[in-house]
Amino acid sequence: MNQSPVETALSRALIRWSLTKSTPVAETHTSWVFRVEQNGRNFAALKILKPNEVEEQRGSRLLAWYGGEGAATVFDMHGDTIFMEWLDGGTLGDPVRAGKDDEGTIALATVVASLHRQRSETPPELQPLRQRFQTLFDTDVRAWPHTARDLYARACGIALKLFDRPSAQIPLHGDVHHDNILSSDRGWLAIDPKGVLGDPAYDLANVFINPKGAAHLATDPRRIAARADILSQRLDYPRKRILGWAAAHAALSACWELAEERSITHQLACLPHLLSAYDQA
């Protein structure tokens, strides 16, 4: 019987790294994930990317570059297959959804500090942040609901202002949010980076519209202010810049959703509060 491409990739990975007992864990639109055993004792993860997943390949190379500091450790990579640390804890979204938002924001700041630590190794090729925002600038304002077009215009203006004001350019995870940070015996660790190059404050932007299932936090001006305070104080990034990127990213996220013909109700609920927080910062 002929094997499927993923079965072939899995078989080759098990042989290459002397692994056993593969268990399917998840299939996303970009990859398949398996739990495997090493030496019959320790668990590890295999992530097999689907064809032509350029962003996932770029992110995996950045994950390897982190060297396990603030992120899951990549043991080895071969083609579209990543052999990496198995993280079996819950996500940082769990305590936040349970009412521990300050604690979650502090933990998130600690993870980001580790990810942003200067490293001697040359980083892999990354996507410029300006290029990542091209979808925002290219979107026809008429794609937005009539009553929200002013929000789109304001967010675009803020993004352009941020790009016009020089900042440090460092490797960015590009998708930091609570459910991309998992518990482990080494502490909280990030997974699934996108691999971006740009302003360090941008890596905090996605925090403000997450986690899923906690929209009451993302639309609460007091929680927005508290998150901005904690992140700015702990990372020493300008508070106004953090909030500016948060508003710009919420609009970018809406444009991505519109391109896929999905609802932007959540982004529209968050964006006025983020713009107001930015104005007051």
TrEMBL record:
Question: Which Gene3D superfamilies would you find in this protein's record?
Answer: 3.90.1200.10
Q: Which SUPFAM superfamilies match?
A: Protein kinase-like (PK-like) (SSF56112)
Q: What is this protein called?
A: Phosphotransferase
Q: Which organism is it from?
A: Devosia oryziradicis
Question: Which InterPro entries does this chain map to?
Answer: Kinase-like_dom_sf, NH2Glyco/OHUrea_AB-resist_kin
